[in-house]
C-alpha cells in the first residue's frame, strides 16, 4: 500500500496528514457530525470505531487539521490501478470554506503518486448538491449502483457512481 506523506501543508493553517489508529475516535466523531445531513435517508450514525478500523485495514484516511483540531477527512483506497475516494467529511462549522476541495485534491495527489489512472467515488442520489460539487472538480457520472440489500433506508435511492481520469 502506498503511504501518504506524514504531513504536508495545504492552504492557510491547514495540515493534511495520514490518520493513525489513535485518531479513530476523533474520525468517528467528525464523520458522524458531517453526515448528520443524511439522517433523512438513514437512521443512526454513519460510522463506528469498528467500521473505521476496517476502512483503515483496506486503505487510509487523510486528515486535515488546523489550530482548532480535526477539520476534515477523506478515505482513500487503491483498487488495482484506480483510486477510490469516500467518506469526504468536513467539520460542519468549516463547510463552505474550500476544505472539501483541498481534501479531494490531496486524495488525487495521493492516487497520482501511487500510479493510479483514475479516481472513482459514489454519492447517494438523495444528496443532490454533491454531484454538481464533484462535477466542478472534474468528475463525471458513469453509472448507478443499488444500495446494499442490508442497508435500511427511509426513502428510495441509489448510488451515483462518478469518476475522474488523472492526468
List keywords for this structure.
167 residues, alpha+beta, Aminopeptidase, 4 helices, 8 strands, globular
Short description:
With 167 residues, the chain is an alpha+beta fold. The protein has helices at residues 24-34, 49-58, 99-113, 130-136, and strands spanning 8-9, 15-18, 60-66, 69-79, 82-90, 118-124, 140-145, 159-165. The chain has an eight-stranded mixed β-sheet with strand order 1-2-3-4-5-6-8-7.
Molecular structure report:
The protein is built from 4 helices and 8 strands. It has a domain of 110 residues: Aminopeptidase. The N terminus is likely disordered. The protein has 167 residues and is of the alpha+beta class. An 8-stranded mixed sheet has the order 1-2-3-4-5-6-8-7.
Kindly report the spatial arrangement of strands forming the biggest sheet: 1-2-3-4-5-6-8-7
N- and C-termini, Cα separation: 21 Å
Low-confidence stretches: 1-11
Write down the CATH class of the domain at 8-117. Answer: Alpha Beta
H and E order: EEHHEEEHEHEE
CATH architecture of the domain at 8-117, please? 3-Layer(aba) Sandwich
Q: How many runs of DSSP E, i.e. beta strands?
A: 8
Q: Which band does the percent of strand residues land in?
A: 25-35%
Number of helices: 4
Helix content: 25-40%
Rg (CA only): 15 Å
The named CATH superfamily of the domain at 8-117: Gcn5-related N-acetyltransferase (GNAT)
Amino acid at each position: 500500500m502506498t503511504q501518504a506523506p506524514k504531513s504536508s501543508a495545504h492552504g492557510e493553517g491547514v495540515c493534511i496528514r495520514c490518520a493513525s489508529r489513535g485518531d479513530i475516535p476523533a474520525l468517528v466523531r467528525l464523520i458522524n457530525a458531517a453526515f448528520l445531513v443524511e439522517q433523512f435517508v438513514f437512521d443512526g450514525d454513519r460510522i463506528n470505531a469498528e467500521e473505521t478500523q476496517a476502512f483503515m485495514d483496506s486503505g487510509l484516511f487523510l486528515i486535515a487539521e488546523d489550530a482548532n483540531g480535526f477539520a476534515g477527512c477523506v478515505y482513500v483506497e487503491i483498487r488495482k490501478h484506480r483510486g477510490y475516494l469516500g467518506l469526504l467529511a468536513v467539520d460542519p462549522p468549516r463547510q463552505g470554506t474550500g476544505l472539501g476541495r483541498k481534501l479531494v485534491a490531496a486524495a488525487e495527489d495521493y492516487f497520482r503518486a501511487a500510479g493510479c489512472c483514475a479516481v472513482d467515488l459514489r454519492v447517494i442520489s438523495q444528496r443532490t448538491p454533491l454531484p454538481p460539487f464533484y462535477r466542478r472538480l472534474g468528475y463525471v457520472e458513469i453509472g448507478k449502483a443499488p444500495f446494499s440489500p442490508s442497508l435500511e433506508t427511509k426513502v428510495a435511492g441509489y448510488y451515483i457512481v462518478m469518476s475522474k481520469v488523472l492526468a
